[in-house]
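queue> pop job 88
queue> type: inverse folding (structure -> sequence)
queue> payload:
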């Protein structure tokens, strides 16, 4: 256990949503803060109660209206407003629950400091209400100087002109005003004074234009994942390929069949297919003996032994591939994954292959070229060294403790 660095035990409140990609990156930081002697409460829907409790934090449960990680990804819709409206609606209904939990009969008590994932709108409101410091934890890229003009304004130009878009921003502003937040939505949403970026700087687009006074890259915050179980490389496997599209956008049986064709019966290769909860081995048809199909795998444990990682290029998977110096084939499915795929390819450690081009022949060709390229191995080793220097979990905890109010 780490020796507590802060002179007195503080109450730190963490807020997130029920999504693996938003919860998992914070867990080791939370575990470290608890080990340093702090009381940490973690506001989360019940689906993640056990995972949060395992860190030693106290789960503060609230009901959510957001689609869950086991729901069909189609529940998120297809347009920008489809994607963002559920977060605001969920925040509006969740905030009274959280006020009751922390100020009323819930017993959590007002914290000394608020930590929150970028997806938790109520956390910013509560920090203003309580007059306590707030630190944002970003599990993916952050805005750079020029982001507003280059990305945000063009992306929102059309939706903002529609009746639905105008109603969304009016509703958001009214909610902030109702709770006394002295900001409009453009000042409140995504404008954070202090952010710990839980990805390596190598994955950040336009990193040279990021305001490092407000954003600190601490890199991957990984810890001992022995509780997730291990994985043993088969004795006859000369090469191992891991395929995973993460936890949400996994309903891709045709893609998995192409992967099986690419590596099934390929001499010396063993293929691990993580297919999620929407696909089963039966959906893939007859498979060669060297193809291992699982709904879930201890990803980091396998990557430490794998020779290549075929990934959707989510922030978590991308940095795990970098941390284990594993060459990657990026097959993005949604949101920030396309940008991550381009970043990984630009670093010279991966190839970006669109889903529609991910045929068995192309995947095999790309993978064999990657694993036999000594330049790829050298670049991965250099990035791995840089990531170690970023500090990870201990540095993140140090920076959080530094913001705790003096007693």
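queue> result:
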């Amino acid at each position: 256990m780490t020796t507590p660095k802060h002179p007195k035990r503080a109450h730190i409140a963490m807020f997130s949503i029920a999504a693996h990609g938003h919860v998992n990156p914070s867990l080791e930081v939370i575990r470290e803060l608890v080990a340093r002697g702090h009381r940490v409460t973690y506001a989360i829907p019940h689906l993640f109660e056990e995972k949060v409790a395992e860190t030693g934090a106290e789960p503060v449960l609230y009901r959510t209206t957001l689609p869950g990680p086991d729901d069909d990804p189609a529940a998120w819709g297809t347009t920008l407003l489809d994607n963002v409206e559920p977060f605001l609606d969920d925040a509006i209904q969740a905030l009274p629950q959280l006020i009751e939990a922390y100020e009323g009969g819930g017993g959590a008590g007002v914290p000394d400091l608020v930590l929150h994932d970028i997806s938790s709108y109520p956390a910013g409101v509560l920090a203003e209400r309580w007059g306590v410091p707030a630190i944002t934890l970003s599990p993916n890229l952050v805005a750079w100087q020029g982001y507003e003009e280059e990305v945000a304004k063009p992306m929102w130009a059309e939706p903002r002109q529609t009746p639905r878009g105008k109603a969304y921003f009016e509703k958001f502003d009214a909610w902030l005003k109702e709770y006394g937040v002295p900001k409009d939505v453009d000042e409140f949403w995504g404008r954070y004074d202090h952010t710990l970026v839980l990805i390596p700087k190598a994955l950040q687009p336009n990193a040279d234009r990021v305001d490092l006074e407000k954003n600190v890259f601490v890199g991957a915050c990984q810890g001992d994942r022995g509780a997730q179980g291990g994985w043993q490389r088969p004795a006859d496997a000369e090469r191992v390929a891991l395929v995973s599209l993460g936890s949400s956008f996994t309903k891709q049986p045709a893609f998995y069949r192409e992967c099986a064709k690419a590596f099934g019966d390929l001499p010396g290769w063993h293929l691990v297919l993580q297919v999620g909860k929407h696909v089963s081995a039966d959906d893939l048809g007859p498979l060669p003996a060297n193809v291992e199909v699982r709904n879930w795998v201890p990803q980091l444990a396998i990557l430490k032994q794998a020779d290549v990682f075929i990934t959707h290029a989510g922030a978590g998977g991308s940095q795990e591939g970098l941390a284990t110096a594993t060459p990657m084939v990026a097959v993005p499915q949604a949101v920030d994954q396309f940008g991550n795929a381009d970043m990984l390819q630009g670093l010279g450690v991966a190839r970006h292959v669109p889903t529609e081009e991910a045929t068995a022949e192309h995947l095999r060709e790309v993978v064999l070229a990657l694993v036999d390229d000594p330049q790829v191995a050298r670049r991965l080793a250099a990035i791995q060294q840089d990531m170690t220097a970023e500090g990870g979990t201990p540095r993140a905890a140090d920076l959080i403790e530094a913001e705790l109010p003096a007693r």
